[in-house]
Design a protein that fits this description.
Elements: E1 10-11, E2 14-15, H1 74-88, E3 90-91, H2 93-96, H3 104-114, H4 122-138, E4 151-152, H5 154-162, E5 168-172, H6 184-191, E6 195-198, H7 201-207, E7 215-218, H8 226-241, H9 244-248, E8 251-252, H10 257-282
Parallel strand pairs: 5-6
Antiparallel strand pairs: 1-2, 3-8, 4-7, 5-7
């Protein structure tokens, strides 16, 4: 048991023992004189070369491309990962057909024709309506009808295809999400409307004074461009509408370089083993 201490007189409601005192605190400062450290002399044979560990500093490998070590923005990473996934996974024909856009030379000629039929700007439309109203007032009768121009907007183009009013439909290959236009090729085939898949939605957008456009339709052209339009209609029918292989061919299933090398190595090992078996059977 701990020793029992005698209680002294209470001071302010507490019992204190006057015989005990607190130990004095030790001073933090040492009374002794500080020891001086001898300065180390730099060795002339091995001079100090401090490194910079910042990006592109001293440890950067000379002449090496460091782009794969860069932390790219999230949208860049997502679009790159999506592209890799489209290669690795098996892609059904309905989606895979959007990777088979028309070639560069064909696209140049198509866009050259479509550029003639860009929609009117609000200012040009107002001016035309003014001139038309002025001619009606003078009694000259109505002027020419609204000129042929490109139609855009998913709902509008769908209606034109359903009513068989569209002469040629152009679909962008990079619409996101792809489900927006996934059904349109099937509708065009059913209604026998020629269509082309082109690169890309931004290029279609510039034709109709927009940032991007998923679909564009041409309802008619001037007399001088009828022959040109017919060529593109035949191209669409041949490459897309009546192309049975395009409707059946799956995409993707392409492995990475490491996996391909591993599979090749495995196939070679199997071939060697098989040849050894054949040799043993002969003997």
């Amino acid at each position: 048991h701990p020793p029992r201490w005698k209680r002294s007189q209470p001071i302010q409601g507490r019992f204190l023992n006057p015989t005990f005192t607190m130990a004095p605190k030790k001073s933090s400062k040492s009374k002794g004189t500080p020891v001086k450290k001898s300065a180390t002399k730099a060795d002339p044979l091995f001079p100090a070369r401090p490194r910079s560990f910042n990006v592109g500093g001293a440890i950067r490998p000379a002449g090496r491309d460091l782009s794969r070590f860069v932390r790219w923005p999230k949208y860049v990473r997502i679009q790159r990962q999506r592209a890799v996934l489209y290669q690795r996974l098996k892609v059904p024909p309905a989606i895979n057909q959007f990777t088979k856009a028309i070639g560069k030379n064909e696209a140049v000629n198509v866009f050259k024709l479509l550029n003639k039929y860009r929609p009117e700007t609000p200012a040009a439309k107002k001016q035309r309506q003014k001139e038309q109203a002025a001619s009606e007032v003078k009694g000259k009768g109505k002027t020419a009808n609204v000129p042929h121009q490109l139609k855009f907007g998913l709902k509008h183009v769908t209606t034109l295809v359903e009513e068989k009013k569209a002469s040629l439909v152009l679909i962008a290959c990079d619409v996101d999400p792809i489900e927006l236009v996934l059904w349109l090729p099937a509708l065009c085939r059913k209604m026998e409307v020629p269509f082309l898949i082109v690169k890309d939605k931004a290029r279609l957008g510039t034709l109709v004074h927009q940032k991007t456009s998923a679909v564009i339709a041409l309802t008619g052209v001037n007399k001088e461009d009828v022959a040109q339009l017919k060529i593109f209609q035949e191209l669409g029918l041949e490459k897309f509408n009546k192309n049975t292989e395009l409707m059946r061919k799956w995409g993707g299933g392409i492995m990475g370089l490491k996996t391909q090398a591993k599979l090749d190595k495995r196939a070679k090992a199997v071939a060697i083993e098989e040849s050894k078996k054949q040799a043993s059977l002969k003997h």
